[in-house]
Design a protein that fits this description.
Helix content is 22%, strand content 41%. The chain is an alpha+beta fold and 180 residues long. The longest helix is centred in the last third of the chain and has 20 residues.
Length: 180
């Protein structure tokens, strides 16, 4: 499940689990040279953001193919930057760049995290509908950066209560999607 943390109506249910999930962790170390030592003394500096990537396949339900395109469009919306005008700033106020769209990802029982989608790679596959040439299958590769709640909340105005409400809204839907 991937849901937009600001607009929970924009969500994608993963009917099938990916065949593999790649998760990356990395740390930064400062190297301090010391007289008489061959190797520098390394001191922990920071842990970098965790990356997550996987591929999913979406299949059309029925003959239309429009549901596959709609699901991919929701995923692509996570990569689009938006702006908004400052309230009360008048018609000539400069638009303000909003932070990247924030998602809330649930994968089974082991991944529940706020994420920023870095890339959506789509391969439209056969068969296609005959009337309007709509794809019946899409393979989608997703690359994400997992973000801490403190960062996510600060960038989006989401508070802890809102994240709990978001999780309880998604949880029953996640269980229902496993039954499909």
């Amino acid at each position: 499940f991937l849901v937009n943390a600001r607009d929970s109506s924009k969500r994608v249910a993963f009917v099938s689990m990916p065949t593999s999930i790649s998760q990356g962790f990395s740390a930064e170390w400062d190297a301090n040279e010391a007289p008489g030592l061959i190797e520098p003394i390394r001191v922990f500096k920071a842990t970098k953001a965790t990356t997550l990537s996987f591929k999913l396949q979406f299949y059309a339900q029925g003959n239309a193919g429009t549901d596959v395109v709609a699901q991919v469009d929701i995923l692509r919306s996570f990569t689009v930057s938006t702006t908004e005008r400052i309230p009360g700033g008048g018609s000539d106020s400069q638009p303000t760049q909003l932070p990247p769209p924030l998602g809330f990802l649930i994968m089974g029982a082991f991944i529940r995290s706020f994420v920023i989608v870095k890339a959506v790679d789509v391969e439209w596959m056969e068969p296609f509908t005959t009337a309007d040439i709509m794809p019946m299958v899409a393979e989608v590769g997703l690359s994400m950066e997992m973000v801490q709640f403190a960062t996510a909340g600060a960038n989006t105005g989401i508070n802890e209560l809102a994240s709990d409400q978001l999780f309880t809204t998604i949880q029953p839907l996640n269980q229902a999607s496993r039954l499909q």
